[in-house]
Amino acid sequence: xxxxxxxxxxxxxxxxxxxxxxxxxxxxxxxxxxxxxxxxxxxxxxxxxxxxxxxxxxxxxxxxxxxxxxxxxxxxxxxxxxxxxxxxxxxxxxxxxxxxxxxxxxxxxxxxxxxxxxxxxxxxxxxxxxxxxxxxxxxxxxxxxxxxxxxxxxxxxxxxxxxxxxxxxxxxxxxxxxxxxxxxxxxxxxxxxxxxxxxxxxxxxxxxxxxxxxxxxxxxxxxxxxxxxxxxxxxxxxxxxxxxxxxxxxxxxxxxxxxxxxxxxxxxxxxxxxxxxxxxxxxxxxxx
Length: 288
Description:
There is one protein chain. By secondary structure, the chain is mainly alpha-helical. Helix content is 58%, strand content 0%. It contains 14 helices and no strands. The longest helix has 18 residues, at 106-123. The chain is elongated. The relative contact order is 0.09. The model is unreliable at 256-287 (pLDDT under 50).
């Protein structure tokens, strides 16, 4: 449009450098990306955000410096999009609202997605053309199998695992608990029972952290005490072949009160290795 206007008015034609950005064209033609997009049901047609984003980019110093630069290389084209993403897409409230309307869980994955995108941009090479590989959804087949086994165990053994909860909640009706607490404990028990190499303390700490994020303010302490009591009861009855350090200064007994009164049993913090494919330096970078 701007090219046509310049011709009609007899003014210098604007640079087409941005329109023919080599990295953007390579991304547009990427076979893996187009295959993924073809399987999605989402569309940007009903939101003004892309147009607003383009206007913001056009007015930015990053864009102006790129257009004024005499450097005309693939690396410069790719670097432009890395900067644009970090400055205008990674932290964009309007875009976040659109994505949240599509999925309530978007913000849970946002940090990981941002890291993946920036790392993908840095990995692209001009010579790979449309066949450039994107980062895989799973880090390894083992990671995918872990998630599959955990999910299946939690679903297929629901009745049995809730029975374990009842065994250590003699004075507390599970129906009065937040449903999310029950789901979290059910998955935690699935991990305890399904993966013999994961220490009990690691499982408890992991799911206490999850409870703090997804459930009530008191859920972390209650779930800590419940999972500790469940694990000890299963070990004592030879249904769980794992080791736990003996409690110091207290009897190994079950939680007898509800979430507000439960005294959580402290466990040694031993977190598993985070399964996130990112270079930590990417998160620490300041905006360019």
